[in-house]
Amino acid sequence: MKYYIVAGEASGDLHASNLMESIRKRDPEASFRCFGGEMMQAAGGTLVKHYRELAYMGVWPVITHIGTIIRGARLCFRDLSEWNPDAVILVDYPGFNLSLARKVHSRLHIPVWYYISPKIWAWKSYRIRNIRRDVDELFSILPFEVEYFGRLGYPVRYVGNPTVDEVSAYLDSHGEPSLFKGEERKVVAVLAGSRRQEVSRNLPVMLKAVEGLENIRVVLACAPSIPAGFYEDMVRGYDVECVYGDTYGVLRSAYAALVTSGTATLETALFGVPQVVCYGMPLKRIAGLIRRLFLKTDYVSLVNLISGYEVVPELVADSFSLRNVRERFYPLLSDTPERRAQLDGYSRMKGMLGPAGAPEHAAAQMAGLLESVHSD
Question: What is the mean pLDDT of residues 8-31?
Answer without folding.
Answer: 92
